[in-house]
Every structure is written in C-alpha cells, then in structure tokens.
Design a protein that fits this description.
By secondary structure, this protein is mainly beta. The chain has no helices and 5 strands. It has a 5-stranded antiparallel beta sheet, with no helix packed on it. The termini are far apart.
C-alpha cells in the first residue's frame, strides 16, 4: 500500500492501543472515540499504552503511522 504524501495528517493525535491480534493487526482508540487501524510492525512496544501518532490515508482508509509511546 502506497501513501500519497499529501494524504498524511501532520497533526499528532493521541489515543490508546485497544488491541492487536497474533498477526499484528490492531486498533488505536483516539481521544474522541474513533478507532484507527495500525499494524504492530510500526510500533514495537507491548501492552495497552497511551500513544501519539499521525494518520495516513491510503486506498483502504485511515491508518496510524509514526506511533510513539506517550510519556
């Protein structure tokens, strides 16, 4: 999946990792309750964590990238 650079949200969003499965697919719940898809290959931490991230749009919809643990 390719991301067009104009479709990357530059604003950092905040949320919590809801879950991810054995294959690494998961969701982050944002502060306003939206769920954003992510794959754990872009985030190596374990457990339910507070995170900040950017949102990218591609042919399958929104997904979280640049995920970092919030302090």
């Amino acid at each position: 999946r390719r991301i067009h650079p104009l479709l990357l949200c530059e604003v950092k969003m905040k949320g919590f990792i809801k879950y991810f499965d054995a294959k690494g697919w998961g969701f982050i719940v944002t502060e306003n309750g939206d769920e954003i898809f992510f794959h754990k290959k872009v985030f190596k931490e374990k457990g339910i964590l507070a995170v900040e991230f950017n949102v990218a749009k591609d042919d399958k919809g929104d997904r979280a990238i640049n995920i970092k643990k919030r302090e």
